[in-house]
Design brief:
251 residues; 2 domains; 10 helices; 12 strands; 22% strand; disordered C terminus
Protein backbone atom coordinates (compact mmCIF):
# COMPACT_ATOMS: atom_id res chain seq x y z
CA UNK A 1 0.00 0.00 0.00
CA UNK A 2 1.18 3.53 -0.78
CA UNK A 3 0.54 6.19 1.85
CA UNK A 4 -1.12 9.11 0.07
CA UNK A 5 -0.51 12.62 1.36
CA UNK A 6 -3.13 15.03 0.09
CA UNK A 7 -0.91 18.07 0.48
CA UNK A 8 1.94 18.94 -1.83
CA UNK A 9 3.36 22.45 -2.09
CA UNK A 10 4.60 24.46 -5.03
CA UNK A 11 8.06 24.59 -3.46
CA UNK A 12 8.12 20.79 -3.37
CA UNK A 13 7.15 20.60 -7.05
CA UNK A 14 10.00 23.00 -7.83
CA UNK A 15 12.38 20.19 -6.82
CA UNK A 16 11.28 18.21 -9.89
CA UNK A 17 13.56 19.14 -12.80
CA UNK A 18 10.87 19.40 -15.50
CA UNK A 19 8.92 21.86 -13.33
CA UNK A 20 11.77 23.85 -11.79
CA UNK A 21 11.61 26.70 -14.33
CA UNK A 22 7.91 27.38 -13.79
CA UNK A 23 6.84 30.41 -11.69
CA UNK A 24 5.78 29.64 -8.13
CA UNK A 25 2.18 30.72 -8.74
CA UNK A 26 1.88 28.16 -11.53
CA UNK A 27 3.46 25.50 -9.34
CA UNK A 28 0.90 26.22 -6.63
CA UNK A 29 -1.86 25.57 -9.17
CA UNK A 30 -0.13 22.30 -10.11
CA UNK A 31 0.06 21.39 -6.44
CA UNK A 32 -3.69 21.70 -5.94
CA UNK A 33 -4.27 19.01 -8.59
CA UNK A 34 -1.35 16.73 -7.70
CA UNK A 35 -0.84 14.31 -4.85
CA UNK A 36 2.12 13.10 -2.87
CA UNK A 37 2.79 9.45 -2.16
CA UNK A 38 5.10 7.84 0.41
CA UNK A 39 6.21 4.41 -0.79
CA UNK A 40 8.19 1.83 1.18
CA UNK A 41 11.43 0.26 0.00
CA UNK A 42 11.02 -2.70 -2.33
CA UNK A 43 7.48 -1.76 -3.41
CA UNK A 44 6.11 -1.91 -6.94
CA UNK A 45 5.08 1.50 -8.27
CA UNK A 46 4.33 0.53 -11.86
CA UNK A 47 3.90 -2.84 -13.58
CA UNK A 48 4.48 -3.77 -17.19
CA UNK A 49 1.22 -3.52 -19.13
CA UNK A 50 -0.28 -1.02 -16.70
CA UNK A 51 -1.76 2.23 -17.99
CA UNK A 52 -0.63 5.52 -16.51
CA UNK A 53 -2.59 8.77 -16.60
CA UNK A 54 0.04 11.12 -15.27
CA UNK A 55 3.71 11.69 -14.49
CA UNK A 56 5.67 10.84 -11.37
CA UNK A 57 8.31 13.18 -9.96
CA UNK A 58 10.77 11.97 -7.34
CA UNK A 59 11.16 14.19 -4.26
CA UNK A 60 13.26 11.79 -2.19
CA UNK A 61 14.62 8.27 -2.61
CA UNK A 62 15.52 6.17 -5.64
CA UNK A 63 13.68 3.77 -7.95
CA UNK A 64 14.73 1.34 -10.65
CA UNK A 65 13.13 0.99 -14.06
CA UNK A 66 13.66 -2.49 -15.46
CA UNK A 67 12.44 -5.30 -17.67
CA UNK A 68 12.49 -9.06 -17.25
CA UNK A 69 13.94 -11.48 -19.77
CA UNK A 70 12.12 -14.62 -20.86
CA UNK A 71 14.17 -16.45 -18.27
CA UNK A 72 13.18 -14.04 -15.53
CA UNK A 73 16.49 -12.19 -15.37
CA UNK A 74 16.25 -8.52 -14.46
CA UNK A 75 17.69 -5.91 -16.81
CA UNK A 76 17.87 -2.48 -15.19
CA UNK A 77 17.30 0.29 -17.72
CA UNK A 78 17.54 3.33 -15.49
CA UNK A 79 17.83 4.39 -11.87
CA UNK A 80 15.59 7.37 -11.11
CA UNK A 81 17.08 9.87 -8.66
CA UNK A 82 15.56 12.76 -6.66
CA UNK A 83 14.53 15.60 -8.98
CA UNK A 84 13.92 13.29 -11.92
CA UNK A 85 10.59 12.16 -13.35
CA UNK A 86 9.24 9.10 -15.13
CA UNK A 87 6.20 8.08 -17.12
CA UNK A 88 6.50 10.67 -19.91
CA UNK A 89 6.78 8.14 -22.75
CA UNK A 90 3.81 6.14 -21.49
CA UNK A 91 1.56 9.16 -20.96
CA UNK A 92 2.32 11.09 -24.15
CA UNK A 93 2.14 8.01 -26.39
CA UNK A 94 -0.93 6.51 -24.74
CA UNK A 95 0.66 3.06 -24.45
CA UNK A 96 0.73 0.49 -21.64
CA UNK A 97 3.91 0.54 -19.61
CA UNK A 98 6.68 -1.55 -21.23
CA UNK A 99 8.64 -1.64 -17.94
CA UNK A 100 8.44 -2.27 -14.22
CA UNK A 101 9.26 0.41 -11.64
CA UNK A 102 10.22 -0.61 -8.09
CA UNK A 103 11.58 1.42 -5.20
CA UNK A 104 15.20 0.97 -4.10
CA UNK A 105 14.57 2.87 -0.86
CA UNK A 106 11.69 4.56 0.86
CA UNK A 107 10.61 7.22 -1.61
CA UNK A 108 8.49 10.35 -1.69
CA UNK A 109 6.75 10.83 -5.04
CA UNK A 110 4.47 13.43 -6.51
CA UNK A 111 1.90 12.34 -9.08
CA UNK A 112 0.79 14.94 -11.65
CA UNK A 113 -2.30 14.05 -13.72
CA UNK A 114 -1.98 14.07 -17.49
CA UNK A 115 -4.68 16.74 -17.85
CA UNK A 116 -2.64 19.13 -15.70
CA UNK A 117 0.52 18.54 -17.76
CA UNK A 118 -1.29 18.94 -21.08
CA UNK A 119 -2.96 22.15 -19.93
CA UNK A 120 0.43 23.56 -18.91
CA UNK A 121 1.93 22.59 -22.27
CA UNK A 122 -0.86 24.48 -24.04
CA UNK A 123 -0.93 27.56 -21.84
CA UNK A 124 2.62 28.21 -20.55
CA UNK A 125 4.98 29.31 -23.34
CA UNK A 126 8.22 28.09 -21.73
CA UNK A 127 6.94 24.75 -20.49
CA UNK A 128 7.04 22.80 -23.79
CA UNK A 129 10.73 23.65 -24.22
CA UNK A 130 11.42 22.56 -20.65
CA UNK A 131 9.69 19.24 -21.28
CA UNK A 132 11.47 18.73 -24.62
CA UNK A 133 14.81 19.49 -22.96
CA UNK A 134 14.15 16.90 -20.28
CA UNK A 135 13.14 14.23 -22.80
CA UNK A 136 16.16 15.07 -24.94
CA UNK A 137 18.49 14.61 -21.98
CA UNK A 138 16.88 11.26 -21.26
CA UNK A 139 17.31 10.24 -24.90
CA UNK A 140 20.95 11.28 -24.77
CA UNK A 141 21.49 9.11 -21.68
CA UNK A 142 19.83 6.11 -23.33
CA UNK A 143 21.88 6.54 -26.52
CA UNK A 144 24.98 6.73 -24.36
CA UNK A 145 23.97 3.50 -22.64
CA UNK A 146 23.49 1.75 -26.00
CA UNK A 147 26.85 3.04 -27.22
CA UNK A 148 28.57 1.83 -24.05
CA UNK A 149 27.06 -1.66 -24.27
CA UNK A 150 27.84 -2.04 -27.97
CA UNK A 151 31.22 -0.33 -28.26
CA UNK A 152 32.92 -0.20 -24.86
CA UNK A 153 34.77 -2.80 -22.85
CA UNK A 154 33.70 -3.82 -19.36
CA UNK A 155 36.46 -1.59 -17.96
CA UNK A 156 35.30 1.45 -19.92
CA UNK A 157 31.66 0.92 -18.92
CA UNK A 158 32.60 0.62 -15.26
CA UNK A 159 34.81 3.72 -15.25
CA UNK A 160 32.31 5.75 -17.28
CA UNK A 161 29.58 4.89 -14.79
CA UNK A 162 31.72 5.93 -11.81
CA UNK A 163 32.53 9.26 -13.44
CA UNK A 164 28.86 9.96 -14.19
CA UNK A 165 27.87 9.13 -10.62
CA UNK A 166 30.61 11.39 -9.27
CA UNK A 167 29.29 14.26 -11.44
CA UNK A 168 25.99 14.03 -9.53
CA UNK A 169 27.80 14.99 -6.34
CA UNK A 170 29.72 18.03 -5.21
CA UNK A 171 33.07 19.41 -6.46
CA UNK A 172 35.73 18.12 -6.84
CA UNK A 173 33.55 15.22 -8.12
CA UNK A 174 35.76 12.57 -6.56
CA UNK A 175 33.17 10.32 -4.94
CA UNK A 176 30.71 7.98 -6.64
CA UNK A 177 27.86 6.47 -4.62
CA UNK A 178 26.21 3.30 -5.89
CA UNK A 179 22.41 3.78 -5.76
CA UNK A 180 21.76 0.11 -5.01
CA UNK A 181 23.36 -3.32 -4.83
CA UNK A 182 26.32 -4.01 -7.12
CA UNK A 183 24.29 -6.64 -8.98
CA UNK A 184 21.69 -4.02 -9.90
CA UNK A 185 24.32 -1.55 -11.09
CA UNK A 186 26.02 -4.31 -13.07
CA UNK A 187 22.71 -5.11 -14.77
CA UNK A 188 22.32 -1.49 -15.87
CA UNK A 189 25.76 -1.76 -17.53
CA UNK A 190 24.92 -5.12 -19.13
CA UNK A 191 27.61 -6.80 -17.02
CA UNK A 192 27.46 -9.74 -14.66
CA UNK A 193 27.82 -8.94 -10.98
CA UNK A 194 31.09 -10.89 -10.94
CA UNK A 195 32.56 -8.91 -13.85
CA UNK A 196 31.56 -5.58 -12.33
CA UNK A 197 33.07 -6.50 -8.97
CA UNK A 198 36.27 -7.72 -10.67
CA UNK A 199 36.63 -4.44 -12.58
CA UNK A 200 36.14 -2.38 -9.42
CA UNK A 201 38.82 -4.34 -7.57
CA UNK A 202 41.20 -4.04 -10.54
CA UNK A 203 40.76 -0.26 -10.46
CA UNK A 204 41.38 -0.24 -6.72
CA UNK A 205 44.49 -2.41 -7.12
CA UNK A 206 45.78 0.08 -9.73
CA UNK A 207 45.37 2.90 -7.20
CA UNK A 208 42.63 4.70 -9.15
CA UNK A 209 39.75 4.23 -6.71
CA UNK A 210 39.15 3.26 -3.10
CA UNK A 211 36.12 1.09 -2.32
CA UNK A 212 34.21 1.83 0.89
CA UNK A 213 31.10 -0.32 0.59
CA UNK A 214 28.80 1.65 -1.77
CA UNK A 215 31.03 4.73 -1.71
CA UNK A 216 33.86 4.73 -4.22
CA UNK A 217 36.49 7.44 -3.91
CA UNK A 218 38.10 8.45 -7.21
CA UNK A 219 41.82 8.87 -6.53
CA UNK A 220 43.04 9.74 -10.03
CA UNK A 221 40.30 11.35 -12.11
CA UNK A 222 42.56 12.12 -15.07
CA UNK A 223 43.65 8.51 -15.50
CA UNK A 224 40.06 7.35 -15.12
CA UNK A 225 38.99 9.78 -17.85
CA UNK A 226 41.82 8.48 -20.02
CA UNK A 227 40.54 4.94 -19.51
CA UNK A 228 37.18 5.87 -21.01
CA UNK A 229 38.77 8.00 -23.74
CA UNK A 230 37.58 11.27 -25.30
CA UNK A 231 38.46 13.45 -22.30
CA UNK A 232 36.83 16.54 -23.75
CA UNK A 233 33.45 14.77 -24.07
CA UNK A 234 33.49 13.31 -20.58
CA UNK A 235 34.68 16.41 -18.75
CA UNK A 236 33.67 19.84 -20.11
CA UNK A 237 36.08 21.49 -17.68
CA UNK A 238 39.12 19.95 -19.39
CA UNK A 239 40.95 21.45 -22.40
CA UNK A 240 39.83 20.26 -25.82
CA UNK A 241 41.99 17.59 -27.33
CA UNK A 242 42.78 13.91 -27.24
CA UNK A 243 44.08 12.12 -24.19
CA UNK A 244 47.42 10.40 -24.08
CA UNK A 245 47.26 6.63 -23.71
CA UNK A 246 50.03 6.79 -21.11
CA UNK A 247 47.58 6.58 -18.23
CA UNK A 248 45.29 4.02 -19.85
CA UNK A 249 44.64 0.79 -17.99
CA UNK A 250 44.67 -2.49 -19.89
CA UNK A 251 41.17 -3.78 -20.56
Amino acid sequence: MHAVRDTVSGSQLARVDVLAALPLEQLELFAKQSRRLEVARGARVLSRGENLDGLYGVLDGRLKIYRLSCGGDERVIRVVEPGQSFGEVIVFNGIPSPVYVDTLSAVSLVFMPRAVIVDALMSIPDFPMTMVRGLSMLMRELIGDIEAVCLQSARQRTVGYLLRQAERGEPPYDEAVLPGPKAMVASSLNLSAETFSRELHALEHAGLIHIDKRRLHLRDRERLLATVGELSDMDPRSPTGSVSDAGRLPS
